[in-house]
Structure formats: structure tokens, C-alpha cells
Amino acid sequence: MQLELIRNATLKITYGGHVLLIDPYFAPRHSLPSFTGRSPNPMTELPGSIDGILQGVELVIVSHLHTDHFDTVAKERVSKTLPLLCQPGDESSIRESGFTDVTTLLQTTVWQGITITPRQGSHGLGPVVEKMGHVIGFTLEAPGEPTVYWAGDTVLYPPVADTIGQVSPDIIITHSCGARWDGDLIVMDAEQTVAVSRLAPQAIVVATHMEALDHATITRQDLRQAANTAGIDPSHLLIPADGETLHLSR
What we know:
This protein is of the alpha/beta class. It has helices at 50-54, 72-77, 91-96, 128-132, 158-167, 190-199, 220-229; strands at 2-7, 10-15, 18-22, 59-62, 84-86, 102-104, 109-111, 114-120, 136-141, 148-152, 171-175, 180-181, 184-185, 204-208, 237-238, 245-247. It has a single domain (2-247), classed as Ribonuclease Z/Hydroxyacylglutathione hydrolase-like (Metallo-beta-lactamase, Chain A). Helices cover 21% and strands 27% of the residues. The strands form three sheets. The chain has a seven-stranded mixed β-sheet with strand order 6-5-4-3-2-1-16. The protein is globular and about 50 Å long. The model has no long low-confidence stretch (mean pLDDT 98).
């Protein structure tokens, strides 16, 4: 498989002979409000043109409707006729934006030979979850490809650990910027990302969703330093830059 980190959670994945776009967030740098007062968002530009990012895309997956996962620019630029998978409850809003081929990821779905299974996530723990709303992750499986677990906007909690144990993924994609909302952790931080690496020593962990938003508390350098201190092999915890493409196998 080929994985290109665009920015934040936005990924372009070539998998099973097809091109998937995950959580498109195309807003220009500093065009959206700050979350914390530190900086307007996003804090970085896209690493390439939107036309280039969209080239070849055959399926779009939207994990939830926070603006840093599916923004106004993406809603305008992504083809309205592309098949789009979303979590239950988001389909009406997406259709209202003009998308005509929207399917809810209620259960395991097979698309063009790729098996896509929704997985539980929790956008924080405790009262903050009500503010953040429901989110999902998912796994990807296809003949000849590594099994991928895209954890999404979640902290490390028992259902995430259970998914790792049950699926035994080859690749785990985490959101690792340590974002906080009113002081509460809402995605994984360095400590939790290291813990994921230890839970799945057979897997390659790919840490994304970093250095793009002003409520993040962990940089790529912070994560690498924590992983090194914990004795995590750098080849088993990859921290790609925006625009970087990884070639991954079983």
C-alpha cells in the first residue's frame, strides 16, 4: 500500500488497487478561527494543490463532521458523485452538501474488493465526549495488502486496545498531537501513542494529525523523543511530514 499524509488527518491511500481519500481538510492556512487563541487554523498550508490531491481518488471516507476533517473547501472541491462513506448520523448533512452517493458505515462493507469495518472510537473520555460527539475508526483488509487500523480521533481506551488485539493489524494509523479541549485530552498524546506501539509490537504505527491545529500539545519532535526514551524502534513508529509518502507492506 501507499500512504500519503496530506495534512492533519487527511490521507490519500492507494490500497487494493484503488485510491482512497480520508477526512479531506483543504482550508488555506490561517483561514479558520483559533481553538485556543494561540493561532488561526490550520497552522500550515497544504503541501500541494487540491487538484493534485484529488487526482485519481475513487472513494472518500469521512469519519466525522468536525471542520478539521471535512471542511467547506473540501465540500466544494470533492466531486459530488464520488462514493462517500461516513458514520451513521452524518449522512443527511453530507447529502445536503450535494453528495449523491453516500453510504453509512454501519457494519462491515466490501467496496471494490476492500473490506472496510467500522471500529469504536472515543473523542476523549468523560464529559468532553458529549461536546466532541461520536466518531469512528475503521479497518481495511484486501488480498495481498497489509491489514490497516485507522484509529481516528480517539484516545487510547479499552475498545481501541481490543481492536488491536482482535485484528492484529500490520499498520496502525493514530492521531497523536495530544489535542485538548477545555483541558481534556481528545486524541492520543505521546504517552498513548507509545503505549499503542507496545500493544502491537508486530505493527508499524504511523502517527498523523500533528502540527496543524492550535489546540495540539505534542509536536513530531516531542513524539519522537518520547518514543526514543521508551525504546521504541524508529522503524516501528513512523512520523511522516505533511506531503510525505510511505510505502508499506505486511
